[in-house]
Amino acid sequence: MGKLFIVPTPIGNLEDMTFRAIKVLKEVDLILAEDTRTSGKLLKHFEIATHMHSHHMHNEHKTVENLVKRLQSGETIALISDAGTPAISDPGFLLTRACVENGIDVECLPGATAFVPALVNSGLPNDKFVFEGFLPDKKGRQTRFLALQEEYRTMIFYVSPHKLNKTLAEFVQYFGADRPVSVSRELSKLHEETVRGTAEEVLKHFEAKPAKGEIVVCVGGLIKTKG
């Protein structure tokens, strides 16, 4: 029986690649990459010559069965995404679940993921939090916001740059203008920035200075009142 390795890759700064991740990627029989062109640059940088196959949200349903058979035959496979830890708002869950169901060993290496540094440097409570990932685009979006109005834990969202101002305006609408918000963008990269303030203040900031790059937003939960 083979083994599936889930291998995090840097979210921007290549120096965040671990020695163990490089070792695993060099030793496995196959690397599954979300985008082979993007991952090809990473592998070239670390002189990793292992063969790659494409594994992304549009083909993972079709490829899982064949990959399980390859693992059952004794192959070792590593799964990587374009950046960060696979299966966190990226492909990976379906294959991991299939391996677990078929008794195939799965080992996830520790490593980069965008929401952890964003949460830690937000200054918001991080003893308890909820990761929401990307909000629905249309259907179910309002329902999700209404459900989160009663959330007491710090909430973490992934937001694309062109939807940031719309999302911040929705935070004002559903959570209130004074709700604390922290927006981190381009984490670990040259132009890393974190903007903190009330939902209204942060919205005004990015209306005046539109955001670019990868974005993680942390929102303070509803404050419990006594009585």
From TrEMBL:
<dbReference type="InterPro" id="IPR000878">
    <property type="entry name" value="4pyrrol_Mease"/>
</dbReference>
<keyword id="KW-0808">Transferase</keyword>
<keyword id="KW-0963">Cytoplasm</keyword>
<dbReference type="InterPro" id="IPR014777">
    <property type="entry name" value="4pyrrole_Mease_sub1"/>
</dbReference>
<dbReference type="InterPro" id="IPR035996">
    <property type="entry name" value="4pyrrol_Methylase_sf"/>
</dbReference>
<protein>
    <recommendedName>
        <fullName>Ribosomal RNA small subunit methyltransferase I</fullName>
        <ecNumber>2.1.1.198</ecNumber>
    </recommendedName>
</protein>
<dbReference type="InterPro" id="IPR018063">
    <property type="entry name" value="SAM_MeTrfase_RsmI_CS"/>
</dbReference>
<dbReference type="InterPro" id="IPR014776">
    <property type="entry name" value="4pyrrole_Mease_sub2"/>
</dbReference>
<dbReference type="Pfam" id="PF00590">
    <property type="entry name" value="TP_methylase"/>
</dbReference>
<keyword id="KW-0489">Methyltransferase</keyword>
<feature type="domain" description="Tetrapyrrole methylase">
    <location>
        <begin position="3"/>
        <end position="202"/>
    </location>
</feature>
<dbReference type="GO" id="GO:0032259">
    <property type="term" value="P:methylation"/>
</dbReference>
<comment type="function">
    <text>Catalyzes the 2'-O-methylation of the ribose of cytidine 1402 (C1402) in 16S rRNA.</text>
</comment>
<comment type="similarity">
    <text>Belongs to the methyltransferase superfamily. RsmI family.</text>
</comment>
<dbReference type="GO" id="GO:0008168">
    <property type="term" value="F:methyltransferase activity"/>
</dbReference>
<dbReference type="InterPro" id="IPR008189">
    <property type="entry name" value="rRNA_ssu_MeTfrase_I"/>
</dbReference>
<keyword id="KW-0949">S-adenosyl-L-methionine</keyword>
<keyword id="KW-0698">rRNA processing</keyword>
